[in-house]
């Protein structure tokens, strides 16, 4: 039986979520009074019932530089805010997380930079998160650590609290070893992750890549999904497997079915001049999303007149990581091609690309999904891509078509989409044309099968499956 190594410091929560971000945003009212507003993502929706039932706590960062907000309650949930200094935001968040790991784990679409100072900041911030988790967890608690920003936390936590059960889920891809091997700190990252009892990945291929990294970077033995790890407590067995994440399908469908959302969808089509074909892209403005490839394909289709007389593309590109250089460059490139397309093809009052560099509430997204004839999801690499699943969940009318990159985790599950290799611009163009001209019967057949998948495998199913496997992991 594992022991509480620092019983004096043990906390009171039986379930602890450790994620880069808190599930709330800091806001100020008109009198300058600060407060917190829920930022309900899929993760918090899935984990909220578990958090409530198990006296849980969520540990994360607010997104702003400044001292740790510490423990507080918001929306009936216990939260602990970890603080990051301005230097840590620069070196840990913008540097190591988003200029080293993010491009490296997405197949070096943008060249990763390896800065020793950033690595030191990553170690220090991971230590702060691990300390907060160690202080919050009750004896024998379950701690679930999330994503690439916190890969050292499992081991750091185990060193302080051998009594807790630790799960880790990687939301982004885990790269092939030839790419991962570039990381100067590859062994430390593998060893950091192996502090967990169970490691979850989006796709089977990600878990396989990780198992290979265990053998190659850390010289460990693996058998099937199991890695044999020797540490202070002797030999442990760690499991690595795929647990594809999903969305709250029923809640999203309920939003899409609301009268005001359906009315808004009709108004959107009206505002766009009742197009024959409405294409839609919704992404964070990120170079992994293949926005430039999509725009290039669209531009060529317009040049060739292959999309019929009245087609419109709405591209929502929500602002993201705006102080990171690669994101600023991408914004310039996207805005250049958007203005070229409109410059070359639009008429007064009728742009052919409606480009929206903004974020929208879920209701507006649902209305856009309902309004679109063809949804374009064309990442060059994506751990899962929840936009694809959201589109399917909203299409209770069984209409619409999904063009989906085979380099997304979602492509493993949504096999009835029009699957594409976004690097193959001709193939992408053909797929867009096929999706735009698909017969209603075939569109319905494809949508029905994708909807079944998303309904049966929602985010609650994902969380329950992972937590069940964690309970049963050998440890
Ligand atoms: O998918 C990885 C992820 O970190 C998500 O958790 C998050 O929603 C998104 O990327 C944006 O990340 P951030 O704004 O925290 O850098």
Walk me through this protein's architecture:
With 475 residues, the chain is α/β, with parallel strands linked by helices. 44% of the residues lie in helices and 22% in strands. It contains 17 helices and 18 strands. The strands form 3 sheets. Strands 5-6-4-1-7-8-9-12-11-10 form a 10-stranded mixed beta sheet, sandwiched between helices. β5 and β6 form a beta hairpin. The longest helix has 21 residues, at 116-136. The radius of gyration is 23 Å and the shape is globular. It binds 6-O-phosphono-beta-D-fructofuranose. 6-O-phosphono-beta-D-fructofuranose (F6P) binds next to β1.
Q: Helices and strands in order, then pairings?
A:
Layout: E1 13-21, E2 24-28, E3 34-38, H1 42-53, E4 56-61, E5 70-74, E6 77-82, H2 86-105, H3 116-136, E7 137-146, H4 153-160, E8 165-169, H5 177-180, H6 186-193, E9 198-201, H7 204-218, E10 221-223, E11 226-231, E12 234-242, H8 249-257, H9 259-271, E13 277-284, H10 291-304, E14 311-318, H11 325-345, E15 353-356, H12 362-371, E16 374-377, H13 386-394, E17 401-405, H14 410-413, E18 418-420, H15 425-436, H16 440-456, H17 459-472
Parallel strand pairs: 1-4, 1-7, 4-6, 7-8, 8-9, 9-12, 13-14, 13-16, 14-15, 16-17, 17-18
Antiparallel strand pairs: 2-3, 5-6, 10-11, 11-12
Helix pairs in contact: 1-17, 2-3, 3-4, 6-7, 8-12, 8-13, 9-12, 10-11, 10-15
The protein binds 6-O-phosphono-beta-D-fructofuranose.
């Amino acid at each position: 039986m594992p022991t509480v190594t620092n019983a004096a410091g043990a906390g009171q929560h039986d379930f602890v979520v450790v994620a880069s971000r808190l599930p709330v945003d800091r806001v100020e009212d008109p009198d300058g009074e600060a407060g917190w507003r829920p930022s309900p993502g899929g993760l918090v929706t899935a984990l909220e019932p578990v958090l409530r039932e198990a006296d849980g706590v969520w540990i994360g960062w607010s997104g702003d530089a400044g001292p740790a907000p510490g423990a507080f309650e918001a929306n009936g949930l216990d939260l602990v805010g970890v603080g990051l200094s301005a230097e840590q935001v620069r070196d840990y968040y913008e540097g190591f997380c988003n200029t080293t790991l993010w491009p490296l784990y997405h197949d070096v679409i943008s060249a990763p930079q390896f800065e020793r100072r950033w690595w030191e900041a990553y170690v220090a911030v991971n230590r702060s998160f691990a300390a907060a988790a160690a202080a919050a967890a009750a004896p024998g608690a379950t701690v679930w650590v999330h994503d690439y920003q916190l890969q050292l936390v499992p081991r750091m936590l185990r060193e302080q609290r051998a009594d807790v059960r630790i799960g880790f889920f990687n939301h982004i891809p885990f790269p092939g070893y030839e790419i991962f091997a570039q990381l100067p700190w590859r062994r430390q990252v593998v060893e950091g992750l192996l502090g967990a009892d169970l490691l979850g990945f989006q796709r089977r291929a990600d878990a396989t890549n990780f198992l290979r990294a265990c053998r190659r970077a850390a010289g460990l033995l693996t058998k099937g999904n199991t890695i044999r790890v020797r540490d202070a407590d002797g030999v442990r067995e760690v499991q690595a497997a795929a647990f594809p994440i999903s969305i709250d399908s029923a809640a999203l469908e309920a939003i899409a079915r609301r009268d005001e959302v359906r009315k808004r969808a009709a108004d959107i089509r009206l505002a766009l001049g009742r197009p024959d074909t409405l294409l839609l892209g919704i992404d964070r403005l990120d170079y992994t999303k293949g926005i430039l490839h999509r725009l290039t394909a669209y531009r060529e289709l317009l040049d060739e007149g292959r999309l019929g007389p009245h087609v419109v593309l709405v591209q929502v590109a929500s602002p993201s990581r705006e102080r990171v250089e690669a994101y600023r460059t991408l914004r310039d490139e996207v805005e250049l091609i958007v203005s070229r397309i409109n410059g070359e093809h639009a008429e007064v009052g009728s742009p052919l690309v409606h480009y929206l560099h903004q974020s929208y509430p879920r209701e507006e997204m649902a209305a856009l999904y309902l309004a679109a004839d063809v949804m374009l999801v064309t990442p060059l690499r994506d751990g899962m891509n929840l936009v694809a699943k959201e589109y399917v969940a909203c299409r209770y009318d069984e209409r619409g078509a999904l063009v989906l990159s085979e380099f997304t985790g979602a492509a493993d599950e949504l096999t009835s989409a029009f699957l594409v290799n976004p690097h193959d611009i001709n193939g992408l163009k053909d797929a867009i044309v096929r999706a735009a001209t698909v017969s209603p019967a075939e569109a319905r057949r494809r949508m029905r099968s994708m909807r079944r998948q998303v309904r049966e495998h929602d985010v609650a199913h994902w969380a329950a499956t992972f937590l069940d496997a964690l309970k049963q992991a050998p440890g």
